[in-house]
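Re: [help] complex structure
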Amino acid sequence: MRLHEYQAKQVFADAGVPTPASQLATTVDEAVDAAEEIGYPVAIKAQVHVGGRGKAGGIKLVENKEEAEEAADAILGMDLKGYHVSKVLVEEAVDFVNELYVGVTMDRGEGEPVAMVSTKGGVNIEEVAEENPDAIAREHIDPAFGMHPFQARKVVYEAGVDRDVANDVASVLTTLYQLWDDRDGSDVEVNPLMITSDDEVIAADAVMNIDDDALFRQPEIAEMGEEAAEGDELEQKADEYGFDYVRLDGNVGIIGNGAGLVMTTLDLVDYYGGEPANFLDVGGGAKADRIANALDMVFSDDNVDSVVFNIFGGITRGDEVANGINQALEQFDEIPKPVTVRLAGTNAEEGMEILNEDLVTVEHTLEDAVQRAVEYAKEVEA
Amino acid sequence: MSVLVDEDTRVVVQGITGGEGKFHTEQMLEYGTNVVAGAVPGRGGQEVAGVPVYDTVQQAAREEDANASVVFVPPAFSADACFEALDAKGIDLVVAITEGIPTQDMARVYRKQQETDTHLVGPNCPGVITPGVAKLGILPGNIFSEGNVGLVSRSGTLTYQVVDNLTDRGLGQTTAIGIGGDPIIGTDFIDALELFEADPDTHAVVMCGEIGGEDEEEAARFIGQNMDTPVAGFIAGRTAPPGKRMGHAGAIVSGSGTGTAESKITALENNGVPVGDTPEEVADHIEDLL
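Output below.
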């Protein structure tokens, strides 16, 4: 789960990381009042989860009231790479001499967190990692000990940060690690961390991504996440239902269990000449009501012309799935979109007996089920 | 012969009194697995499916000679359950089935495991099965058959799919290992491939990977350099849209274009591993390799 910049900055500020003066605004009047109060120049920043906000016109630097009004009016309500902007952060513009990158993330290959510092801040850090990996200093942290103070200093000096500000940068990094650790972070970063001519260190942006699997013990963050929720309607609905869901451009709706098998089903739809409309993983052990919810999701996608269910039961039981499918379909006078079902594994035999073949097409292999669903989609198209 | 699980495997189920724990204990017993004990704090002295329950894993290991644990404990308590199993004397295999364990918890478990000689499989995995002998986990036993193909996979249900295709052709399995789909797991591809390479009865191996991370690329290099046993591969996620699942974090750390299906398929093929376009094609490749 990803917090908005304004939320992450609040968390950072509460933990003692220096941040610029700022206020959140949802209307042009609020934005102008905030700008007047903070004092010019200020930056007006769209609060959406979009990379390259500045280039896309989502961040504007303003010098006076007229400009503030104009910028807030342009940004509020704008569509930024598909995301509607409903909030802006009005923030003191910091006069800097240097920009650093400071962050903590999980290195899945090593199974350990890694602290990173670079003097190439203020630009896309993935590009730096790609083109000039040596420009990022890295220090792995033993999760049983946490970050030793020397490790923060070590990585800061390895990165080539000026001695005059090294202690302050190390202190920001130490705080970021603490937050990462305490709040179940997956990525916690500041880019850029600005260095002013007076050797002050200020977090001009803030990223805080939290491990979804840990939200049960991070109630405050989970609450902020609800406020941060965005994306298209179906993706939000999937969040409510607790499904792993990704919407694509095709017309074959796909429901399955287990990420690998669902991805394989998408790949096969493509392989057999169809176009996948979505990735929907109902997860392990899905019961009847969950299956009905999944079907409801895929039916409510207007692009979908045909649906394929591919369930290979281990922890998920075929009879539960079959009951869910029947239950969901029996409420329709007419089935909105043809549904092809393939059940295998735990209780699959029982499931296939339960399935109402007046409502669904039953296939016995993955390949057959996918080809059938692709055919149905093509018939509807034609 | 087989790897990890054989006739001498004696299982303690952690979380045996829960719904999933009980259901799958019954399934494991029905398959012929030697489930000798359950471990649930405060439930010592009870019985589930005829299996005695102990309060701690150590008691189960001591009283029933359990040497392997299967973890069916809810996510919030799973890391502690893994620590308990890794700590217990006599337990040399821990299979963590639970999905949804916080990643930071697993980082600590992984570090503890590195200090021991105990194998950890999972979490978020279907388990390990040696067909005809025993299964530890939730894999549907009826689709497996005895034979000479080893299988290692990051995805549970994809494993079942590929096994189903193998079994249909009469291509049985020595052992199948579901290593799990989480970012941090115990046994990885290379660990599993090493076990299969050392097993004289495993004549070919299927490796099923998926997008994300770079374990498949590393495993491909390992196969090219260290394995005589032939391997066929499958990679899920060719049509996955970029950026949707690929963490920004992994990209920074690796600093290269790995993690895509294309990168993994190329790495495997460059190391002599044929990759199937469909699960069915994987079975074709195995037939050719045997």
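The first strand of chain A starts at residue 22 and ends at 25.
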